[in-house]
């Protein structure tokens, strides 16, 4: 049986950008663009109607930007789509705020086509795109002044070790190999970390680790 394609919603105020992304995505047999929007204000109704798996969300738009649109999707949908924000500059504070709002990663507008489709596949599987260098740089400007705010989270020594490796950008498989653990064991540790930190995914966990001072941006 052939698997259902990953349904993608394109949100960008530039028609040329949407056309380019549509051409890249629709050329893949396992991906399909189900709709487009020119502003964040249009996203909510479209998501309710077409139920996309992944949203490619431009960060800067005239009426409702990608940050606000992402936050609304997280608040108003029990099972929101996976969101990849699209930006020109990786060190943009808008990107960081979008990740904090619930986006699962970001793409630069100059990203190569093969990397775009791979990113869509990655987040559609439930994984997050963690970019340690970019997040580290952005987190430095947002770090809290209260020291290690995660101290009260009750992470075990192993869970803390797993969180540090997550922040370094390692996948579950890579963490398992580095710590000589089974993959299911690592998944359990990652799940425990997310639960104890009260976050939705790996990206949120990494942001919390840097902002709290648990991991130094330097």
Automatic annotation (TrEMBL):
Domain Response regulatory span(s) in chain numbering: 7-124
UniProt entry keywords in alphabetical sequence: DNA-binding, Phosphoprotein, Transcription, Transcription regulation
SUPFAM superfamilies registered for this protein in UniProt: C-terminal effector domain of the bipartite response regulators (SSF46894), CheY-like (SSF52172)
Domain HTH luxR-type: 148-213
CDD domains referenced in this protein's UniProt entry, alphabetically: LuxR_C_like (cd06170), REC_NarL-like (cd17535)
Keyword Cell cycle carried by entry: no
Pfam families per the UniProt record, alphabetical: GerE, Response_reg
Domain of life of the source: Bacteria
Modification 4-aspartylphosphate occurs at: 58
The keyword DNA damage is annotated on this UniProt entry: no
GO MF, any single term: DNA binding
Any one Gene Ontology BP term: regulation of DNA-templated transcription
Family annotation (InterPro entries): CheY-like_superfamily, NreC/VraR/RcsB-like_REC, Sig_transdc_resp-reg_C-effctor, Sig_transdc_resp-reg_receiver, Tscrpt_reg_LuxR_C, WalR-like
Gene3D superfamilies in the cross-refs: 3.40.50.2300
Protein name, as recorded: LuxR family two component transcriptional regulator
Organism: Haloactinopolyspora alba
């Amino acid at each position: 049986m052939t698997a259902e394609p990953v349904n993608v919603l394109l949100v960008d105020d530039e028609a040329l950008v949407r056309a380019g992304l549509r051409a890249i995505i629709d050329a893949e047999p396992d991906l399909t663009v189900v709709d487009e929007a020119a502003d964040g204000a249009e996203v909510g109704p479209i998501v309710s109607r077409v139920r996309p798996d992944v949203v490619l969300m431009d960060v800067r738009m005239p009426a409702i930007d990608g940050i606000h649109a992402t936050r609304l999707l997280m608040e108003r949908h029990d099972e929101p789509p996976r969101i990849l924000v699209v930006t020109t500059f990786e060190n943009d504070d808008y990107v960081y705020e979008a990740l904090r709002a619930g986006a699962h990663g970001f793409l630069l507008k100059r990203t190569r086509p093969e990397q775009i489709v791979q990113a869509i596949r990655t987040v559609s599987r439930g994984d997050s795109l963690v970019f340690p260098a970019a997040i580290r740089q952005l987190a430095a400007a947002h770090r809290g002044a209260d020291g290690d705010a995660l101290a009260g989270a009750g992470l075990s020594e192993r869970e803390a070790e797993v969180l540090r490796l997550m922040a370094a950008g390692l996948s579950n498989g890579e963490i398992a190999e580095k710590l000589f653990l089974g993959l299911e064991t690592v998944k359990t540790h990652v799940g425990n970390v997310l639960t104890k930190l009260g976050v939705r995914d790996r990206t949120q966990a990494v942001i919390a680790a840097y902002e709290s001072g648990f991991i130094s941006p330097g």
